[in-house]
Amino acid sequence: MTSVSDIDLVTRLSERLPPASVIVELGPWLGAISEVLATKGRLHVVDSFVWTSDHAKRVPHLLEPGESFRAVFEELMEARGHSVEVHEADFETFRWSGDMIDLCVIDAPKKSTAIRDALLAVASGLRDGSCLIVKNANHHNYFQMMAYIQDLIDQNVLSLLEADTEGDCNTMALEVHQSNEHLITAIEET
Q1: How high is the mean pLDDT of the chain?
Q2: CA angle, 80 as apex, 76 and 81 as ends, to 5°?
Q3: How far apart are CA 118 and CA 91, in angstroms?
Q4: Could you read off the pLDDT of 13-35 as tens digits, one per residue?
Q5: Please, are residues 90 and 120 in contact by the beta-carbon 8 Å criterion?
């Protein structure tokens, strides 16, 4: 679930963006973060939109596990007056082909292989100076993912912008320091 602290971090960083920024969110679920991002630029969301048993526990009786929640997400965004471009795809197969990304939010991966897949999905659009926000990257239960990100920091591929080490925000903000093939190679080889 997304905490108030997570939303505050996303809001602070997205307010630094220039108008008409390209924003990509991987794993929007029901749009708590999407609602903030949609007001800050051109928002693209990427998800397989498959309702899981974990989703069903958090929001009972909305959908059955295995059903698509894309329509629910789109209806929520429309009801809030937000325009969002939806890309229905798995992170493993999706590859960004749009304009360069100013801000990318990743919310879903909990393992090093999953964060690697998510980063590869958007790497072609990230450039030196792009902002990357990773939900759960500052959570001790997901040590493998934290270690993978630390490896990328140690290689100067990413640098830490902000992380809450004592509060309830488990989200980490990073700056990208490589582009295109160099970034893709670093992600693949880590």
Answers
A1: 92
A2: 120
A3: 5
A4: 999 999 899 999 999 999 999 99
A5: no
